[in-house]
Write a structure and sequence with these properties.
With 262 residues, the protein is α/β, with parallel strands linked by helices. It contains twelve helices and five strands. Strands 2-3-4-1-5 form a five-stranded parallel sheet. Helix 2 packs antiparallel against helix 3, helix 7 packs across helix 8 and helix 7 crosses helix 9. It starts with 5 loop residues before the first helix and ends in a 13-residue tail after the last helix.
């Protein structure tokens, strides 16, 4: 390739908004194409392939940053051996991400410390890698944000802003007992996403105890109905991994040798 034309090509590629990676490597790919006798079509296809791959990577990075997912709660750091075989099979299906196309929900139940949050966050990370949009927020923070939006008269706008995320992960829906105003905005969110976008949530309370969240039987029944109509329900039934870790790290009590007899 002529050295005189290289600056012109670089400028043209920049004007075409080609990535820095593409602008830096078109020359090396051109040299490889000449060496191996590629056709022009193959060379052009390779440049397009590299550019699309770079754009996809940058998009995933933006989605990961926007998701607010804890970076450390990945699938690689989750001990899947703790799951029963049927739960692991269900997880494998969820990892494909097809449930988002059906607008299905994922409802995860167990006691505190069992790894519910880690598991849903790990699922969220994997979905982003498959090109899906995910947003994570503890329920208490989500409710406070919705209350502010309602007070400022832009609750509908906030709900639509959350619509851009295919999966909304609500962590610890029963951790804080809501008052009536908090319950109403939470129910409004669930009703808004019903058959429209997926909700993934964790809860320490089984459905029979959800009146503690929604305060009255009618609202409780309506919320449960909207969540379970199209859903995958997972009951982990695991022991607390925090307790297990504490037991493993607990130093053994050192035996104190008896003192000399007096």
């Amino acid at each position: 390739m002529s050295e005189l034309i290289k600056p012109q090509i670089s400028k043209s590629l920049r004007l075409l908004h080609l990535s820095r990676h593409g602008r830096d490597h078109y020359g090396t790919q051109g040299a490889l194409a000449a060496e191996e006798g590629w056709t022009y079509d193959r060379y052009l296809f390779r440049l397009c392939e590299m550019e699309l791959d770079q754009r996809a990577q940058r998009k995933r990075q933006r989605w990961l940053q926007a998701s607010k997912l804890p970076r450390e709660k990945m699938l690689t750091t989750f001990d899947r051996s703790r799951l029963k075989k049927n739960l692991d099979r269900q997880l494998a299906v969820l990892l494909e991400g097809d449930f988002l196309d059906r607008r299905d929900n994922v409802l995860l139940f167990d006691n505190p410390g069992s790894g519910k949050t880690h598991l849903l966050c790990a699922l969220g990370h994997e979905l982003i890698m498959k090109g899906r949009t995910v947003y994570f927020l503890p329920c208490v923070l989500l409710v406070q944000r919705l209350l502010i939006a309602k007070a400022e008269l832009w609750l509908e706008k906030e709900l639509k802003r959350l619509d851009k995320f295919e999966a909304l992960i609500i962590d610890d829906i029963a951790y804080v007992q809501q008052n009536r105003d908090e319950m109403e905005v939470l129910f409004t969110l669930l009703a808004h996403r019903y058959e429209h976008r997926s909700v993934l949530l964790t809860s320490n309370l089984v459905f029979s105890q959800w009146e503690k969240i929604f305060k009255d039987p009618m609202t409780t029944a309506a919320a449960i109905d909207r969540l379970v109509h199209h859903s995958v329900i997972l009951e982990l039934n695991l022991s607390s991994y925090r307790m297990e870790a504490a037991q493993k790290s607990k130093p053994e009590e050192m035996a104190i040798p008896p003192g000399p007899e007096s």
